[in-house]
Automatic annotation (TrEMBL), chain A:
SUPFAM superfamilies: Cytochrome c. Residues 502-845 form the Cytochrome c domain. Transmembrane segments: none annotated. This is Cytochrome c domain-containing protein. PROSITE patterns: CYTC. One of its GO terms (molecular function) is electron transfer activity. The lineage of its organism: Bacteria, Pseudomonadati, Pseudomonadota, Gammaproteobacteria, Pseudomonadales. Keywords: Heme, Iron, Metal-binding. InterPro entries: Cyt_c-like_dom, Cyt_c-like_dom_sf.
Automatic annotation (TrEMBL), chain B:
This is Uncharacterized protein. It comes from the Bacteria.
Length: 845, 298
C-alpha cells in the first residue's frame, strides 16, 4: 500500500477572619461578614481609598479574577499557539528580589520566600519553588488532586444596582467562576492547583520538588541553526500549578503619590490598580520559555517596558505594541453621542423573538435576557485608535479576552493560524468573536459580565483620581515631617527656579494656544476659545479636575506623524476577531489618505490622549518610544532584555549604533524624583525632534520562518517538507526591523505565488489594483520567476527573496514604518525659553 | 484510489476477523452538517454547529472508516468538532489513515489554487516520510496506565529497505501477537489530554512523539523519525463511539492526514450501554459548551 504523503504548506491555616466591615468598607458600617484572609489587605485598601461596596467589589475582581484563563496560560498558549511560557523563570521565589528589575512585575506584599523569617512555608519544597502566599495553606494541599474550592466562591457581591434589568432577584453567575486562586507572589498573576500533577513524575524530571530545572532545561537542538527545545513543550508533563492572570497583571502599578522605598519590597499602600504598570515586560513573560532565535520570540519580545502588543495572540499580522493605558479621572473622559452601535443589551424577555442570534435568555433564570440591536449610543472611545467603541462595559469585558479568558470556549477557533496557508481552510484568516455564543457557552464570561458595573464603578472611583506632582512632593516631605505642606505656590516657585521666571504662566499660555485644541476636553477648546481656559479647574460636584486634558477624538496618523503601525491595527474590522466590539461609526471613518498601507475599516488614526499627570507617565507616545529607553538592570543577566535589544540606530543605514554610541538607558526608578527626571528628559526629546536619535527595533539575527516539518536523521538534514524563508537581519546594508517579520503577509504572498503559476491573468489584475500598474507588473514578473526557481527545490525561496527584498519589506508588508520615536513634532519651533515654560506648566497638570 | 486503499487495508491489517468494519461503503453517513462554502470565512463556527446539530449516539453509529472517506474534509472536521475525547484507550486498536472525498491526498494548497504545482513548495521526494506514513496511523497499542502508545508494524520491509531500522541481536525489536500474527512495536509516543489544533472547545487525546526518545523501548532508528527532530508528529483523537476514534495527524503543527482507530471487542461490549445513556467516561476536559437539545439518554 504505497502512498505518498504530502504536507500541507501547510497559596496560619485556612481561616476566615471575621472582620467588622466597618473597618474596611464604609458603606456597610453596621455589617459584619467573613473575609477571606487573602482579601484582608484588599478591603484595607478600599477603606484607604474611600471606595464604596461596588467599587471595592470591582477592585477585587480587577486584581484577582482570571475568569478561567489559567488553562490558557498553561495549556492553550503552549500547545495550540505554540508559544512557551517559563513560569518558573518568571516567578521563582529565590529571585523574588530581582523580579521587578527583570520582568517589571510587582511583588505581592503579602507573599514571602519560604524559609525567610515569619514566612509560613519553611522550604521551597513546600511551594514547588514559588513564593508562599495567603491561601496557600489550603491550595497546596490540592496540588495533584481534585476538589479545590476557589477563594472566589467566598467573594461577596455588592448589592445589585437599583433598576437592573435582570433584577430585582440576584441572578448573577456564581462568583466561583471569577476564579481567583491565590497569588503567585507577583500581583495580578494567580495560581491554581493542578489536579493532574504527578508528584513522582515531577521529582523524577526535576530531581527536587523545589525546582523546575528539568522542565525548563534546554534540550540540545539537532542541527545548526535550530532552536533548543525544552520539556515546556511536552504536554504530557503537568506542572504543579496552573497559572492565570488578572487584568491587574498589567494595570497594577506603583502609586506615583506614594512610591515604595524599595521597588522589590513594596507595601500595600504603594499599590494602585489603575494607573498602569509602565515597567512590565509582559511580552517577554509570554515568550519566557522560547529561545531568542525563534520566530515567536522575535515576534513577541519587541515591546518596550509598559507596552504590549494585544494583537499578537489574536494576530492581525501588524506589529503594533501599545502602552498600558493610564486610567485617570475616567468620569471626565469624553464620550461621543449619536454613534451607531450594534450590541447586546439587557432585556427582561425575548417575547416576540425566536432568533437566539438576536435575543437570548439564560436557561434556569427568570427574565435574564439579552437583546441585540443597532442603536444610537453615547460611547467612549477606548484603545489607541478608539477601536473599542460600543460602550465602557464592553470595553472592560474585552480586556478579559486579552488576558486569555474563555479562550477555548469562545475565541481560539476564531484566530488566524500562521501555519494555515490554505484559504479554504479554517484558520487562514480570523473569524468574528461571537459575544452571544460566548455568553451562552462560557460561565466565566457570565461571571465577569454580571459584575462589569462594579468594575466600571472602580474605574470611576477615587483610586483613579489624579496623582499630581504637588501632592506627591507634599507626601514626600511628610515622610520626615508629618505636618509638612507643599502648596501650589510652592510647586510653581520650584518649577520657576528650575525653568525660569514666570515659566508656569507662560507655559499655560503656550499650552492653551498650541496644544489645547487636541489636549483639552473642555467645550471651549473645541470651540477654539483657548484664552480663558482653566486647565486646573475643579468640578465642585465631585472634586475631579474638569479637564481630562485630551479630547479623545481621532487624529490621522499622518497628521500626528508618529509610528503608524498601531493605527493600522485591524482586529475591529468587519469579519475580524473583535468586530463586535467596534461601532459602525468607527468603521465608517475615512482612511488616512497620506498613509500608503490600507486604511480601510476605520483604521489610520490615533486618539488625542490625556495629558493628566504627564509628569508621572514618561516615556511618551503610544509605544513608550519617546524619551530614554527604560531598563531594569537585573542581577540575573539572562533576564536583561534591554541588553538584548538596543534600539538606537544610524539614521541612514538603520543599523544599530555601536555600543559606545548607544545613549544610556534610564534605570527603572518609580520614585517621585525618578519619574520627574524621566519626564523632563522625555519632554526634551518631545520638543526637540531634531535631536532625537532614531529608534528602531531590529532583528538581531536572521530568523527563519518555517512551515512544515523537516527531518534530521543525525547525519544530514533532509530537505524541508513544507516551505521556509529567512528574514535576514540586514538587507542591502540596512538593518531589518523586527516588525518586518510580524508585518510580512506571508499567506497572501504564498497564495499569490501559486496564482502566478495557475491564474496569472487574474493575479495581474489584482496586483495592479492593489499596487498600481508599474509595481503590480513588476511583482507579477518576480512572482512568476520565483515560482519557476522553486520547482522541486522549496529551500530556494530563501535565496529568491533575498534577491527581491522589496517583496518582504514593502509589497507584502502590512506596515512599512521604521522609526518608532518619530512624529508629534508640535512645539519644535518654540524658543528654548518657551519649551522650558511648557515643560514647567505640563508638570503641574 | 481511496476505496482501493481500504479494501487492501482490510485484507492486510484485519484479516478475516475485522473486515466487516472496514467493508466497502457506497454512501456517506446520513448525518447533518451545517452549510458551508469554499472560503475559510464561509465555514460554520463549531460552537454554533454543535449547539444546533449535536451528534446523537445514533448518528455516531452511522459513521464507518469507509464512509468517512466519502465526506469532504469540512464534513470530517464538522464530525470531529462534535466529538469528545472519551476515555483514553487501552489495548490494541486497528486503524488506518484516510483521505477525504475531493482530495487527492496530495498538496492541498495547489489544489485550491488551481493545481499543477506539485513540487513548488513541497519536496515530494521524502521517501522516509512516505515510509513513516505507511507505518504510523495503522494499528496501535495503547498502554493507558502508563500513558504510552506503541505502533504496530506489520511489515518492516519498507523501513528496512531505507536503512532506518537499527537491528541489534542483543536488543531485539519488541513484538506483539495480533490475530495470531506477529507484529513489531515501534514508534513509542506519549499519551495525554491536550489541546486540539482544530477545535479548542474541549480537549482531545494527544499522541505525541516529541519526546519519544525518553520512552522505554525507544530505538533511535526508526523511532526518531517521528520525534521532535524528525517529522515532529503529533496526533489527536476523539471518540466517535466506544472503541472507535477519529484522529487527525499533524507534522510540525501542520495538518497532514485523517485516521481512524477501532477495537471491535470494546465497540461491541459497550455499544448498548452507550446507545442507552449517550454518555461515557471522559478522561479529558470536556469544555463548557451548551447544546440546544441533549443527545438521547441525557
Amino acid at each position: 500500500m504505497k502512498r505518498a504523503l504530502l504536507i500541507v504548506i501547510p497559596y496560619v491555616l485556612f481561616l476566615f477572619i471575621i472582620l467588622p466591615l466597618s473597618a474596611t468598607t464604609p458603606s456597610a458600617a453596621a455589617e459584619t461578614r467573613s473575609v477571606h484572609a487573602q482579601d484582608e489587605p484588599y478591603f484595607a485598601a478600599c477603606a484607604r481609598e474611600g471606595l464604596n461596596e461596588s467599587e471595592c467589589a470591582g477592585r477585587l475582581i480587577w486584581f484577582k479574577a482570571t475568569a478561567g484563563n489559567d488553562r490558557f496560560h498553561t495549556y492553550v498558549f503552549q500547545q495550540r499557539v505554540g508559544v512557551l511560557i517559563d513560569w518558573y523563570r518568571v516567578l521563582r521565589s529565590d529571585q523574588r528580589g530581582d523580579r521587578f528589575r527583570a520582568w517589571g512585575i510587582i511583588n505581592d506584599p503579602a507573599c514571602c520566600t519560604p524559609g525567610t523569617p515569619d514566612c509560613p512555608a519553611k522550604s521551597v519544597d513546600e511551594t514547588y519553588g514559588m513564593d508562599w502566599c495567603p491561601g496557600d495553606e489550603e491550595l497546596l494541599g490540592y496540588v495533584g488532586r481534585t476538589g479545590y474550592r476557589d477563594p472566589a466562591c467566598d467573594f461577596r457581591d455588592a448589592p445589585l444596582k437599583e433598576g437592573d434589568e435582570h433584577g430585582p432577584a440576584d441572578q448573577r453567575q456564581s462568583a466561583c467562576d471569577l476564579k481567583f486562586g491565590t497569588s503567585t507572589g507577583a500581583l495580578g498573576i494567580r495560581k491554581f492547583p493542578n489536579p493532574r500533577f504527578d508528584k513522582t513524575a515531577w521529582q523524577r524530571l526535576n530531581r527536587s520538588l523545589a525546582s523546575w530545572a528539568g522542565y525548563n532545561r534546554p534540550v540540545a537542538a539537532a542541527g545548526a541553526g535550530e532552536a533548543a527545545r525544552s520539556h515546556l513543550q511536552d504536554g504530557a508533563i503537568e506542572p504543579p500549578f496552573l497559572i492565570g492572570t488578572a487584568c491587574g497583571s498589567c494595570h497594577i502599578a506603583f502609586d506615583p503619590l506614594n512610591p515604595p522605598a524599595d521597588p522589590a519590597n513594596p507595601k500595600w499602600e504603594n499599590i494602585k490598580g489603575l494607573v498602569g504598570n509602565q515597567y512590565t515586560r509582559i511580552s517577554e513573560i509570554m515568550v519566557s520559555g522560547m529561545p531568542s532565535n525563534t520566530l515567536e520570540w522575535q515576534m513577541f519580545a519587541h515591546a518596550r517596558p509598559g507596552a504590549s502588543d494585544t494583537s499578537a495572540i489574536p494576530t492581525d499580522q501588524i506589529n503594533n505594541p501599545g502602552t498600558i493605558n493610564a486610567l485617570i479621572n475616567i468620569a471626565k473622559r469624553p464620550t461621543f453621542a449619536g454613534e451607531q452601535v450594534m450590541k447586546w443589551r439587557k432585556a427582561a424577555s425575548c417575547a416576540g423573538s425566536s432568533d437566539e442570534a438576536l435575543c437570548w435568555c439564560e436557561p434556569g433564570h427568570d427574565g435574564k435576557c439579552w437583546k441585540k440591536s443597532l442603536e444610537q449610543d453615547t460611547a467612549h472611545h477606548i484603545l489607541k485608535g478608539g477601536e473599542d467603541s460600543i460602550g465602557a462595559l464592553e470595553a472592560i469585558q474585552r480586556v478579559y479576552f486579552n488576558i486569555g479568558s474563555c479562550s477555548e470556549q469562545c475565541w481560539m477557533n476564531h484566530l488566524s493560524d500562521l501555519r494555515q496557508l490554505d484559504p479554504q481552510q479554517r484558520g487562514f484568516g480570523q473569524m468574528p468573536f461571537n459575544i452571544g455564543q460566548c455568553r451562552r457557552d462560557c460561565p466565566n464570561f457570565r461571571a465577569i459580565e454580571d459584575r462589569l458595573p462594579n468594575i466600571l464603578d472602580f474605574f470611576m472611583s477615587a483610586e483613579a483620581h489624579t496623582t499630581d506632582l504637588r501632592v506627591a512632593r507634599e507626601n514626600q516631605r511628610r515622610t520626615t515631617m508629618p505636618e509638612a505642606r507643599y502648596s501650589e505656590q510652592d510647586l510653581v516657585a520650584d518649577l520657576e527656579r528650575e525653568f525660569g521666571e514666570n515659566a508656569v504662566a507662560r507655559g499655560r499660555e503656550i499650552f492653551a494656544n498650541t496644544c489645547a485644541r487636541c489636549h483639552s476636553s473642555q467645550p471651549e477648546a473645541a470651540a477654539g476659545q483657548f484664552a480663558s481656559l482653566d486647565f486646573h479647574r475643579i468640578d465642585p460636584g465631585n472634586g475631579l479636575r474638569e479637564d481630562w486634558l485630551g479630547n479623545d477624538r481621532n487624529i490621522s496618523a499622518s497628521e500626528v506623524g508618529t509610528y503608524r503601525c498601531r493605527a493600522l491595527h485591524s482586529n475591529h474590522m468587519s469579519g475580524h476577531i473583535w468586530q463586535e466590539y467596534g461601532s459602525e461609526t468607527l468603521r465608517a471613518q475615512p482612511p488616512d489618505a497620506n498613509v500608503r498601507e490600507p486604511g480601510d475599516g476605520g483604521r489610520g488614526h490615533y486618539r488625542n490622549i490625556s495629558l493628566l499627570n504627564l509628569w508621572a507617565h514618561a516615556p511618551f507616545l503610544h509605544n513608550n518610544a519617546l524619551g530614554p529607553e527604560l531598563c531594569g538592570k537585573p542581577r540575573h543577566t539572562g533576564n536583561d532584555f534591554y541588553a538584548m535589544r538596543p534600539r538606537y540606530v544610524d539614521g541612514s543605514s538603520r543599523k544599530l549604533l555601536p555600543p559606545d554610541q548607544q545613549p544610556a538607558c534610564f534605570e527603572y526608578d518609580p520614585s517621585i524624583e525618578g519619574r520627574y527626571r524621566l519626564y523632563k528628559l522625555s519632554m526634551h526629546e518631545l520638543l526637540n525632534p531634531a535631536q532625537r536619535a532614531p529608534k528602531v527595533t531590529l532583528l538581531n539575527e536572521d530568523i527563519t520562518l518555517r512551515i512544515g516539518p523537516r527531518l534530521w536523521d543525525g547525519t544530514a538534514k533532509e530537505k524541508l517538507l513544507g516551505f521556509q524563508l529567512t528574514i535576514p537581519s540586514e538587507i542591502d546594508g540596512r538593518g531589518v526591523t523586527a516588525g518586518t517579520l510580524g508585518n510580512f503577509q506571508h499567506k497572501q504572498f504564498i497564495v499569490d505565488l501559486v496564482r502566478a503559476k495557475t491564474g496569472a491573468q487574474e493575479l495581474e489584475a489584482s496586483l495592479i489594483q492593489r499596487f498600481g500598474e508599474d509595481t503590480g507588473g513588476k511583482v507579477l514578473g518576480d512572482l512568476k520567476a520565483i515560482a519557476d526557481e522553486l520547482i522541486g527545490q522549496p529551500n530556494a525561496l530563501v535565496e529568491a527573496l533575498k534577491a527581491r527584498p522589496y517583496l518582504i519589506k514593502q509589497v507584502y508588508s502590512s506596515c512599512t514604518a521604521e522609526i518608532e520615536n518619530e512624529g508629534h513634532r508640535f512645539g519644535e519651533d518654540l524658543s528654548e525659553a518657551d519649551k522650558k515654560a511648557l515643560i514647567a506648566f505640563l508638570a503641574t497638570l | 484510489m481511496k476505496i482501493a486503499t481500504f479494501t487492501l487495508c482490510a485484507a492486510l491489517v484485519f484479516g478475516s476477523s475485522g473486515c466487516g468494519f472496514f467493508d466497502r461503503d457506497e454512501q456517506p453517513p446520513d448525518i447533518n452538517f451545517a452549510p458551508y462554502g469554499q472560503g475559510y470565512g464561509e465555514k460554520p463556527d463549531f460552537a454554533q454547529l454543535e449547539y444546533q446539530l449535536p451528534l446523537l449516539p445514533e448518528d455516531r453509529y452511522k459513521i464507518t472508516p469507509q464512509n468517512l472517506s466519502l465526506l469532504d474534509q469540512e464534513q470530517v472536521d464538522q464530525i470531529y468538532a462534535r466529538l469528545s475525547a472519551g476515555p483514553i484507550p487501552d489495548g490494541a486498536f486497528d486503524g488506518d489513515l484516510f483521505f477525504p472525498h475531493g482530495g487527492s491526498g496530495n498538496l492541498r494548497l495547489s489544489e485550491i489554487a488551481g493545481g499543477g504545482l506539485r513540487g513548488l513548495l513541497v519536496n515530494v521526494g521524502g521517501q522516509k516520510l512516505d515510509a513513516v506514513g505507511e507505518t504510523l496511523w495503522k494499528g496501535k497499542v495503547f498502554y493507558r496506565g502508563e500513558r504510552l502508545l506503541r505502533n504496530r508494524i506489520e511489515d518492516l520491509s519498507t523501513l528496512k529497505r531505507l536503512g532506518v531500522v537499527e537491528e541489534d541481536a542483543n536488543r531485539p525489536l519488541q513484538t506483539i501477537q495480533v490475530n495470531g500474527k506477529e507484529q513489531w512495536l515501534l514508534f513509542p509516543a506519549k499519551l495525554y489530554c491536550g489541546q486540539s489544533l482544530l477545535d479548542g472547545r474541549r480537549e482531545s487525546i494527544i499522541i505525541d512523539y516529541a519526546f519519544t526518545d525518553e520512552l522505554p523501548g525507544y530505538r533511535r532508528m526508526p523511532d526518531m523519525l517521528a520525534g521532535r527532530d524528525g517529522f515532529a508528529i503529533r496526533d489527536e483523537i476523539r471518540m466517535v463511539y466506544p472503541g472507535f476514534y477519529l484522529g487527525r495527524a499533524y507534522m510540525d503543527r501542520s495538518f497532514v492526514v485523517n485516521f481512524v482507530l477501532y477495537n471491535q471487542e470494546i465497540a461491541e461490549r459497550i455499544r448498548d450501554a452507550f446507545m442507552e445513556r449517550g454518555e461515557i467516561q471522559e478522561d479529558c476536559w470536556t469544555g463548557t459548551q451548551q447544546v440546544a437539545r441533549a443527545p438521547a439518554g441525557q
